[in-house]
Write a structure and sequence with these properties.
Distance between the termini: 13 Å
Helix content: 25-40%
Number of strands: 11
Order of helices and strands: HEEEEEHEEHHEEEE
Strand content: 25-35%
Structural class: alpha+beta
Strand order of the largest sheet: 3-4-10-9-8-7
Number of helices: 4
């Protein structure tokens, strides 16, 4: 866990997310800021959100602002995917068809997990309705997304997507499927 995440947790100021299918695994937080995911027409995609990331020094420490040369020379990592954050591992799919099958299977697993934990039927139906909105978006953006597994490398659990909605960005955003997460305040 990065120093920034620890400080924000101690202040009680962040939301953290665990994998619904593997609740012991923390997969992200809102420490970098939460954004809506929008399609090419600017419409919000239901059931998805993204968090911003930035470059940090190894260990999750902030880069020095006062000495650009020192900051440039330091070993760096991503504030979301780096080893001192959530230690995400790239998990490429072999084809768009394989990715489509994963999305379909994942949504069914989340649906069953929601039912098993006693989630109200209308909430389960709401997730499945959202899936009808986010699944086509994910498939359309297949070539623009880099899937990552969480730290336990479970390919059946939550997958987090590296996404560069603006190629001029210095660091990627990270897209999450909200229904597959357990949200809690730290």
């Amino acid at each position: 866990e990065s120093t920034l995440h620890l400080v924000l947790r101690l202040r009680g100021g962040i939301l953290a997310y665990n994998d619904l299918l593997d609740p012991a695994v923390e997969v992200g937080s809102d420490a970098g800021g939460v954004l809506d995911v929008t399609d090419d027409e600017g419409n919000v995609v239901p059931g998805l959100f993204m968090v911003t990331s930035r470059e940090v020094a190894q260990g999750g420490f902030a880069l020095p602002d006062d000495d650009p040369a020192e900051a440039e020379a330091m070993e760096k990592e991503n504030s979301v995917s780096g080893p001192s954050a959530f230690n995400l591992t790239p998990m490429p799919f072999g084809s768009k068809a394989e990715f489509r099958d994963w999305v379909k299977g994942y949504c069914q697993q989340v649906r069953q997990a929601l039912k098993d934990k006693g989630t109200a039927p209308e909430e389960v139906k709401a997730f499945m309705a959202e899936a009808k909105g986010f699944a086509p978006f994910l498939l359309k953006k297949y070539k623009d997304l880099t899937p990552h597994m969480n730290s336990n490398c479970n390919p059946d659990g939550a997958i987090i997507f590296e996404y560069w909605p603006d190629e001029a960005q210095a660091t990627p955003n990270w897209v999450y499927i909200k229904g597959g997460l357990i949200e809690y305040k730290c």
